[in-house]
Write a structure and sequence with these properties.
- By secondary structure, the protein is α+β, with helices and mostly antiparallel strands.
- The chain has one domain (9-59).
- The protein has one helix at residues 42-59; strands at residues 9-12, 18-21, 26-30, 36-40.
């Protein structure tokens, strides 16, 4: 299970998702459960984070 590095943390949402800046324009997007995906570009990372959170909300509507 991956844990984000607080020194490189850019975003932590109220739902627990994170975006971490890496080298070379790469960003790691992680769910609260520790599932992470690395993408190129902050815009793409932000889109991925919101998509993952919306999928999670649909799968677990009560929490």
């Amino acid at each position: 299970m991956a844990h984000p590095d607080d020194k490189r943390m850019m975003v932590r949402t109220p739902r627990g998702s994170t975006i971490e800046a890496l080298a070379g324009g790469q960003y790691r997007v992680c769910t609260p459960e520790g599932s992470c995906q690395t993408v190129t570009g902050l815009h793409r990372a932000n889109d991925l984070m919101y998509w993952k959170e919306s999928q999670r909300a649909q799968a677990h509507p009560d929490g």
